[in-house]
Design goal:
601 residues; ABC transporter transmembrane region fold; Rossmann fold; 3 domains; 18 helices; 10 strands; 64% helix; elongated
Amino acid sequence: MRTKHYGKPPSRQNDWRTIKSLLPYLWEFRGRVILALVFLALAKVASVSVPLLLKEIVDALNPSQAMLVLPVFLLVAYGLLRLANSTFGELRDMVFAKVTQRSIRRVALKVFEHLHNLSLRFHLERQTGGMSRDIERGTAGIRFLLNFMLFNILPTILEIGFVAAILLVKYDPWFCVVTLVTLVVYIVFTLLVTEWRMIFRRNMNEMDSKANTRAIDSLLNYETVKYFGNEGFEARRYDETLQSWEKAAVRNQTSLSLLNIGQGGVIAVGVTILMLMAGQGVVRGTMSLGDLVLVNAFLIQLYMPLHFLGFVYREIRHSLADMERMFGLLERHTEVSDASDARELKVSGGAIRFEHVGFGYDSRRQVLQDVSFDVPAGHKVAVVGASGAGKSTLSRLLFRFYDATTGRILIDGQDIRSVTQLSLRRAIGIVPQDTVLFNDAIYYNIAYGRPDAKHEEIVEAARAAHIDQFVESLPDKYDTMVGERGLKLSGGEKQRVAIARTLLKNPPILVFDEATSALDSRTEKAIQAELQEIATNHTTLVIAHRLSTIMDADQILVMEHGRIIERGTHNELLARNGAYAHMWALQQQEEEVERLEAASN
């Protein structure tokens, strides 16, 4: 099974584009960013001043000098500088917190909205587990990138500049030269090795997403796994991916350890050379003990963040790699989008017209071929045919989940491609064959048809769908949780919830896609009577399997291989003695067999 990639292969250009995409979020809070940078600069000034003050204290306390009084002022100033360093750092983080969290919120919301704008084709092909992990890592990457690029790399560079300037002015130029050479070697070594290590991190991410996809897919299909006793098979498939992840993780950690050893070696050599030079200066009398302490303090103060800088650079590169997948989702083309001059759909009666519509999910396989029919306002038209004839594709095109390849679809004379998708879908209600519910209460799932509906309206919709008695019999009544995808309810119960929320929406156009297929005969007849009453005031398109449910349709269309081969009323089609009449005869025989079996039991 191949892992789905949403973005382009990682590159330096992509990294800069990713960083650039975050700049508008920083610019929105430019006042806070500037204030945070001021606090950052003050914290670094206080940090660099600490070793300078420490030198003065050591020299003042040197026994070889006549110590007249305890340097209380210097000691107090030392403590105040330490306090200032930490205080300004915390103020910086406090001021910048809103910038970071708002940026994460905005990007996450943008991705979420974009995913809803992508076509049904994308969502049929997506791997939910891997995609959710990509988004999770991507938002975490934003947090790391904003905080550490601005508050670790920048201050470390400032500190290096301050220290180099002080060493150059106060001491032998070789101190500055050795320090800068050590820094250059350290940085070059870190960059080269980190780039080499990135392949292991990306491989880890890919295996992590793949493992998450397999785990979620298996858990969503829990019952299927149990039906076939394939728990061991699923565990082996999951473990195969985990094994690949384990290998990548071991290589990642091993290469990290090698990098840390190399970084430590570079720093150790640089520190040793500088301390030898400082010690020799003290012996010769050209430097005091305070100078020795100053150089040592500067080196510790400099190399500690420098060592952290190596970690930060690695993590920034990792964060960029994590963000590539998430931003790749934003680059996905919205296959169906509103025209630039799209207007609101104005529904007067809700008349539907398909004009020479052709469509194929794949260019190699045409599903609909030159389909034309009308559903007059307030009329009921049914579509029947064998599985794969293209019946459900009609409703998907009507909702603009896809756009027709040829021809056009009109509602009250308006091409649906010229109106906004929101106004189009607001005018249509559907009860699909495969009803999927939210993992929430029954009340929430019914109210989803019109979230601002009153309690009485929701109860009335449940009553019209003949689910109110079932709900009232439950211990938690309307607060009963339905489980993920509604798995706690039977097929018929889920279908009735779907009917109730469509009734609550009360749109001018109704689509019933095998709406009663999961119901028992008694409940089906009760709901059919209700649907017939509703259909008298609505334009209704019924996609049906049981022909007995559409006998009252104003027109019945018979489809075969993407074409309409017969059309007429129930009686007209029976009299024609064609495909419809043959289907009717077969279903009558099946129903007779079912009645006999039921009577014998």
